[in-house]
Amino acid sequence: MKLSLTKVVNGCRLGKIKNLGKTGDRTMDVPGCLLYTKTGSAPHLTPHTLHNIHKVPAMAQLTLSSLAEHHEVLAEYKEGVGKFIGMPESLLYCSLHDPVSPCPAGYVTNKSVSVWGVGGRVEMTVSKFMAIQQALQPDWFQCLSDGEASCAEATSIKRARKSVDRSLLFLDNCLRLQEESEALQRSTIIGVIEGGDVMEERLRSARETAKRPVGGFLLDGFQGDPMTLETRLHLLSSVTAELPEDKPRLICSVSRPDEVLECIERGVDLFESFFPYQVTERGCALTFSFDYQPNPEETLLQQNGTQEEIKYVHQTKKIKTTGCNQEMTSFEINLKEKKYQGDFEPLVRGCSCYCCQNHTRAYIHHLLVTNELLAGVLLMMHNFEHYFGFFHSIREALKNDRLAQLKELIRRQAS
Amino acid sequence: MAAAASPSSMESAPRIMRLVAECSRSRARAGELRLPHGPVATPVFMPVGTQATMKGITAEQLDALGCRICLGNTYHLGLRPGPELIQKAHGLHGFMNWPHNLLTDSGGFQMVSLVSLSEVTEEGVRFRSPYDGEETLLSPERSVEIQNALGSDIIMQLDDVVSSTVTGPRVEEAMFRSIRWLDRCIAAHRRPDQQNLFAIIQGGLDAHLRATCLEEMTKRDVPGFAIGGLSGGESKNQFWRMVALSTARLPRDKPRYLMGVGYATDLVVCVALGCDMFDCVFPTRTARFGSALVPTGNLQLKKKQYEKDFRPIDPECACPTCQTHSRAFLHVLLHSDNTAALHHLTVHNIAYQLQLMSAVRASIVEKRFPDFVRHFMGTMYGDPTLCPTWATEALASVGITLA
């Protein structure tokens, strides 16, 4: 696999990762995102409805938390998780955890890391972890790592140091086992940068991990509420500065449009796409604009629309919604609101997704009010398409030196 | 005319059914319904999309499965989102963006089955909305009014529905009232040119009452007849006899719609008895409980025995689920909280029902329906002779022996 950068502007990297996949002929765009899945399937979607979505990323994210407990079945299946889940054509990245449902802290030891499946806790030593990966045969996988230094409110230096030490030890052991495994020769280990909020440890983690023959880097523990992210963004720049330019940088648990842009400016290449899923679960639809070059007439219309929506959203932002603990953002509208009952417009005018091409806000509102399963399906289709469209616009903006405009547009909508 | 491209006549209801083939032994028929939103091959199974959605599958997926008619429920839609909004959305077709045919029932059945405090009078059914507590009267006129707003291709009369386990004078009262309500529905129907109003034969499990109802209702020139009041708690033995009685006395050239029937065996037997159309929530509902329908019965995919079963649900099935996924994967997915699992099974179960009806139809057209029945029962029960007694007797009554 090879990362070729077309340009780097203000810290943002634009390029392609080539020679991916078992046959070595797949490509991925950078900056980009990975398709978020739950137990090997896009949420709410079957291959049919997934194929309705335009610009689905070439690589999907699987989570070990949903698959680890099934490793015996996968081992017996022998043909790898891609085929098992019905996505034989997709590139696959296996993360440890599910960004939407982080697991309880306190279960990492010097010898093992735990994930939580439906059946309970699955404790993985390095050898068990590698055995599971052997059964999965993903294209990329996050190395076993200790991510708990960033969990607590105030990380002690000692805890931060331990997270780096452990993760490096896990990495070295995993690399060793990979060498000995025929089945894992075509899988790429992604090294994990830990160190909590302690600059010294973060730098050590970056430098040491970079010395190992990993295929890329996962920047772990930079998530949090907008406040903590602010402080951590500074750390992030320092970390990416230590990493080689020719290997991709992934970040976990950061998915909001505004935060995505901040991270891209600090040298991050790949993101998870769980944000559209969270939006879906609260009955909302992404409506933020990423059209940084609209024609003047549309700008006027959009401004009027945006103003009204922002005004309304401020009043309702405090509403906690079921299904997801996150609060609604100003990037979306809440289709459960009564005002959409008789609104026969599509979710977003001009959107090319299946939902917007075929259905109205009034219909989605009805589906939500009556608790129908189709609500989730249609919203997920729209929200994924909208989100993947956003990433496409990032790449276009970078190509045309317009990222500042896009950033301003997003910033305005981030309330 | 509520059929495609036929001259209009205000005096008689359109003949919307064209018979293509009839079994020379049994009463089975293959035909074609000509409806405003396109032709429908019969016998047909109509999946139930209660609240303007076929549960978790999109209109496109349903269309791709070959479905050309499905159901919506007047009771539910009448409450949420209400007929006025649906009318604004260009009818139920426009609201849910379904390009093919729709059949709506009258709301009568839900009145009785869902509403604990409903009261039936000659006027109609009085009930309290479970959503806002408001008291409403569903009269024959109101039911037709709502269905006119919904714009479905086939609408059902409001009938006085009584559970099939009820006996005594109530059954007779309901039967006669249903006739009177049929006449009121016919009078209230504003769109006979675009929507086909079906009558519903009642009479419970009483042969005399059924016969009376049949005699009276067939005097009314409606485009089709439904056989109602069955598929409740009655014994199968009584059930089939009422179906057979009804088909014997319903006109040959009009469709016979047996309401609420959806188990595979029941479908095959009732086709033999002369029914053309069926609906049932069973296949879609059972899918959401993790049960996949197969020619030998069903697979409870959540069970441990499917953990390492890498075969598709049915290797003969052409549906997208069976083309891509194994029982083992579906087992895993069903134990997760990803709703996609339910949608996979919904797709498969609808495909199963539609493929079954297709196969039944082909066998009638190709003059081998009795052989089809024997083969079907053999697969389902291990041996044709192991078929349930009621089914054996029902089939025998129309000249099909299973030995």
TrEMBL record, chain A:
Similarity remark: Belongs to the queuine tRNA-ribosyltransferase family. QTRT2 subfamily.
Cofactor info, note text: Binds 1 zinc ion per subunit.
Native source organism of the sequence: Equus asinus
Name of this chain's protein: Queuine tRNA-ribosyltransferase accessory subunit 2
Lineage of source species: Eukaryota, Metazoa, Chordata, Craniata, Vertebrata
Its job: Non-catalytic subunit of the queuine tRNA-ribosyltransferase (TGT) that catalyzes the base-exchange of a guanine (G) residue with queuine (Q) at position 34 (anticodon wobble position) in tRNAs with GU(N) anticodons (tRNA-Asp, -Asn, -His and -Tyr), resulting in the hypermodified nucleoside queuosine (7-(((4,5-cis-dihydroxy-2-cyclopenten-1-yl)amino)methyl)-7-deazaguanosine).
GO cellular component: mitochondrial outer membrane
Domain tRNA-guanine(15) transglycosylase-like: 13-413
Molecular function GO labels: metal ion binding; tRNA-guanosine(34) queuine transglycosylase activity
Domain of life: Eukaryota
Stored SUPFAM superfamilies: tRNA-guanine transglycosylase (SSF51713)
Cofactor: Zn(2+)
Membrane protein topology class: Peripheral membrane protein
Chief subcellular location: cytoplasm
Self-association state and partner proteins as the record states: Heterodimer of a catalytic subunit QTRT1 and an accessory subunit QTRT2.
Automatic annotation (TrEMBL), chain B:
Catalysed reactions, semicolon-separated: guanosine(34) in tRNA + queuine = queuosine(34) in tRNA + guanine
Molecular function GO terms recorded: metal ion binding; tRNA-guanosine(34) queuine transglycosylase activity
Residues that bind Zn(2+): C317, C319, C322, H348
Gene3D superfamilies, A to Z: Queuine tRNA-ribosyltransferase-like
CC terms in the record's Gene Ontology section: cytosol; mitochondrial outer membrane
One Pfam family matching this protein: TGT
Region entry RNA binding, spans: 260-266, 284-288
Keywords, in A-Z order: Cytoplasm, Glycosyltransferase, Membrane, Metal-binding, Mitochondrion, Mitochondrion outer membrane, Transferase, tRNA processing, Zinc
InterPro entries: TGT, TGT-like_sf, tRNA_ribo_trans-like
Known cofactor(s): Zn(2+)
Positions annotated as active site in the UniProt record: D105 (proton acceptor), D279 (nucleophile)
Membrane topology: Peripheral membrane protein
Compartment list: Cytoplasm; Mitochondrion outer membrane
Domain tRNA-guanine(15) transglycosylase-like: 26-380
EC number: 2.4.2.64
Domain of life, source organism: Eukaryota
Biological process, per Gene Ontology: tRNA modification
Residues bound to substrate: D105, S106, G107, G108, F109, D159, Q202, G229
Subunit composition and interactions: Heterodimer of a catalytic subunit QTRT1 and an accessory subunit QTRT2.
NCBIfam families: Q_tRNA_tgt, tgt_general
Family label: Belongs to the queuine tRNA-ribosyltransferase family.
Function comment: Catalytic subunit of the queuine tRNA-ribosyltransferase (TGT) that catalyzes the base-exchange of a guanine (G) residue with queuine (Q) at position 34 (anticodon wobble position) in tRNAs with GU(N) anticodons (tRNA-Asp, -Asn, -His and -Tyr), resulting in the hypermodified nucleoside queuosine (7-(((4,5-cis-dihydroxy-2-cyclopenten-1-yl)amino)methyl)-7-deazaguanosine). Catalysis occurs through a double-displacement mechanism. The nucleophile active site attacks the C1' of nucleotide 34 to detach the guanine base from the RNA, forming a covalent enzyme-RNA intermediate.
This protein's name: Queuine tRNA-ribosyltransferase catalytic subunit 1
Species the sequence originates in: Equus asinus (Donkey)
Taxonomic lineage of the native organism: Eukaryota, Metazoa, Chordata, Craniata, Vertebrata
